[in-house]
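Case study 2.
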Amino acid sequence: MTTDAALPVPRTALVTGAGRGIGRGVALGLARAGWAVALVGRTRAHLDAVVEEVAETGARVTVAAGDLIDATAVLDAVARVETAFEDLGGVGLLVNNAGVIERAEVPFADDDVEDTWRVVETNVRGPLLVTRAVLPGMLARGGGRVLNMNSGAGVNPGGAYTGYYVSKGALARLTTMLDAQYRDRGLRVLDLAPGVVATDMTGGMPAHDGRTAWTPVEDVAELVRAFGDGELDDLSGRFVRAGADTPASLRAAAERLLATDARRLRLPTWGEDDPLA
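Prediction:
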């Protein structure tokens, strides 16, 4: 990739939902690659368990617990992380990983709309609040990177989990908006679909009963690491998928990807004569 020079941002990462699952795997992967990591989430006991694992890698680690849909709690957690990383230059990479899914695998009309809204609120309001809290520091320092943990649900329809699909579509739009508004100020943003990683959430989904092929969480962590280190900066505002993409394959496909403006959320039209074109 040659379009964008990698931005010189601190190798410090704030990972939400870091107490288990993909968030834990990403935090450990970054720590093993020499990053300082901040573990942020709602349940302190889960975060503390991961702190011990990160400490074994020799990486610097800090923790800040809080409800990520509570604006005051988010501001407090981010302020504590920024203070902890002040001598390192502040937060260089934000990984918006925390998320939930509906309790029942049913179509919208059969679901509890309050549960649907719980999912949308958690998966959209949380990243909005955390990003808004981190963004001023990044912009003041001349740049930073934001990775939104998305899903194939963000770009494809499905027969169940309406709130989850809606929330991931909204998250993909947030990625494109941040890229459009702040690319010129040094921000880079990426949607990463992790594939199907074996977690408590996927393990409880009937759709994955009997599944034997899972995406290794290490593959997810490696894409996060590559983005954090600036290797994928040209893909800002776009969508990648662990288990299908690797840093090397994305670099190899970059010229074609950019030439065709692929992997970006938009409305396809029928041609140049379409009034929406």
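The chain has a mean pLDDT of 94.
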